[in-house]
Specification:
With 185 residues, the chain is α+β, with helices and mostly antiparallel strands. It is built from 2 helices and 5 strands; from the N terminus they run H-E-H-E-E-E-E.
Length: 185
Amino acid sequence: MTMPTPQAPAPGFPPPTQPESGDGKPGGQLNAKQKTVLGCGGMVALFLIVTMIAAVVSPSKATKPAEAKPAPTVTVTVTATVTVTAPPPVEAKAPEPSPTQEAAPQTAQVPDMTGKSGDLLVEALKTAGFADGYKATSFHDVSGQGRTVLLLKNWKICDQDPKNKAVPLTDKISVGVVKFGESCP
């Protein structure tokens, strides 16, 4: 390790001098006892500084805020009344047909579904233009047993009135059926 070389004093300034201690050593050097005293004093000073900082940063028991009590619950009810005045509704009048022109009822073609199942007739009527093919029909058992017709796919159409004809959408189609596997009368 190399020691730094002392620099020459700046012009116009005298060189620094070191006082001598009583044991013949230059005044800038400390003996072991002096170093120990300074080291312990430095530790005590450091401890006091840290303790003072900790006391400032951490709250003490004397400065604790009083325990917070919950605020009372307040209920506010607001009632508003609004009055709206609207003009009476205007009724739309349907155009009256002219005396020379009668309003023609809407019609749809009823297909002949003899020999097919009842559910196929209902679907064909929907396709033809009836809003509800089931409501447009009246199914009845023609076997003479007087059974109630429930599951249409199990019943075969023996006769229907009308068939292959255009009828008003408000007409009912009468359909005579028997169970599949039975003969039509």
